[in-house]
């Protein structure tokens, strides 16, 4: 039985994806029953061909491909829907997340209260450009003030969460950046776990600071509205005979 599904969204990561998959396998094989689910978001640099070859080398690997480019949140959701485990770990396809930290998140889960259904990576030593770090701090500060999600870093790609809880969340583009607030809205607890962050070895980031900031502000106000219009209702099952 698969105990963990590692979902990796990928877009134009031809040089990064094979080393990442092999690294995931090296850290997890023999420690936990797992699968790796890679979702190619209509890459045009040969990423899909690399993944196809890897399926013959890595028995734990399953690959799915979008027929049109749909974005990172859609790729994550595709992977989660195809996953065979009740728990999901996610990693960015660029290799900046360290797969060794999956084990750290699993250890945190095993120690946590059962109501904690999301363990979010927290990049305490960012290995990005100064401009990207500044934009991230600015966005995180605004998000925390509006959403009160008590999460220092929602942009980190490495996360661990329960599959059923994730699929119960409202879906929208860029939702992966608001998972702590959305999980809390659904009545679950979340935790932030310090993790490593590595420099990008090949390729370049797919996001510009300005474009991400403008889209992020629109999404942020939308999530804030969604939370303000929500409440969690406790449900209990009634058993026994009917009225006599």
TrEMBL record:
Pfam families: Glycos_transf_2. This is Glycosyltransferase family 2 protein. InterPro entries: Glyco_trans_2-like, Glycosyltransferase_2, Nucleotide-diphossugar_trans. SUPFAM superfamilies: Nucleotide-diphospho-sugar transferases. Residues 5-166 form the Glycosyltransferase 2-like domain. Keywords: Cell membrane, Glycosyltransferase, Lipopolysaccharide biosynthesis, Membrane, Transferase, Transmembrane, Transmembrane helix. It comes from the Bacteria.
